[in-house]
Amino acid sequence: MFFIHSLSPGGAERVTALLANHWAKIGWDVSVVTTASAAKDFYPLEPSVKRYSLDLERTRTNVAASVLANILRIRRLYRILRKAKPDVAIAMMPTSNILLSIAGKLSGTPVIGSERVHPPSMPLGRLWERLRRVFYPFLSALVAQTETSADWLRANTGTARVVVIPNPVQHPLASHSPRLPPKDCLSRLNKTKLLLAIGRLEHQKGFDLLLSAFADIQDDHPDWALVILGDGALRSELAVQIRKLDLQEVVLLPGLAGNLGEWFDAADVYVLASRFEGFPNTLLEAMAYGVPSVAVDCATGPSDIIRHDVNGLLVQQGDATALAGTLSRLMKDSRLRLRLSSKSIQVREDFSVSRVAGHWEDLVSKVLSQNETRV
């Protein structure tokens, strides 16, 4: 059983759906529980995957109401665990880890937690950080995506078993709604080359920095358009920045797309400009499609995937000038793009769903063996 806040667009949500579908296809009894309503699902699940929803997404405005809401979430989780009787439950992201660790302890269900972002990069706030230290020791195991994050979790959470399992990459990607045809978007801009970026329109993803960098080089690359796929709280702010930089004729924010494979097929360069990451799915996916890629070398993630100047290019964090220069170098050099592309597709094998799922399966087996020994 998986427990996650929602299956709305996002990296943790995509990984949850990938693993759930993979195990369902090979005959496992799989269920997915979300705090939010299933009506918000973006990623499709196999028909055999059982779907539960707590329908308790609403954010509370005061501490007392928030405490009561989370007690109710734990209570409903406990009931679902008692009804479904999973061999093991897997939580995705910190608050889900905490809530499921408590419900699992009460129901006797082994729980594996999973951190999807390097923890120091996204502090939870004083209360949730304290709850993490108190309740993470209830977890049978905790999954980090990189060794750097694992070291932090070992030092700060008291979890007995912390293991590193990277994200899987699916190739080719399944297509689902909403569909945005790349040709339609590019024809609106009358451009022949595509610089692609994908992610939630939030501060973390650094799209403001990307727009500034692209503004510095776009006159030197008149055939290129920048398309940023995704949605989020900063859409209006980014739209204003595009107008201020006079980029309306070369930049589009078309929204969410469920046909990312078509976009990777159409892209000439992919760029990840994030301020921080866990293990970026979109970078993996772009490389699996052979899209030559540039990534800001934030604390964790990109350098675990890219070998600089071998299968991609890394840029020092916080250096907008370097980002602009590296993008320009790649955009004008077709031979470099071809060389990086030929090496990048190795991620299809290194991070395949079956290989990564195998690491999860090994961990599940160890957790179940440990639980049987205790019983």
Would you write up a description of this structure?
The chain has 375 residues and is α/β, with parallel strands linked by helices. It folds into two domains: 2-168 and 352-374, 3-Layer(aba) Sandwich (Rossmann fold), CATH 3.40.50; 182-350, 3-Layer(aba) Sandwich (Rossmann fold). It has 15 helices and 13 strands. It has helices at residues 11-25, 63-84, 94-107, 126-135, 147-156, 182-189, 207-217, 235-244, 260-266, 281-288, 302-305, 320-332, 334-344, 347-350, 353-374; strands at residues 2-4, 31-34, 50-53, 89-91, 111-114, 141-144, 162-164, 193-198, 224-229, 251-255, 269-272, 293-297, 313-316. Helix 2 (63-84) packs across helix 3 and helix 3 (94-107) runs parallel beside helix 4 (126-135). The chain is globular, with a radius of gyration of 21 Å.
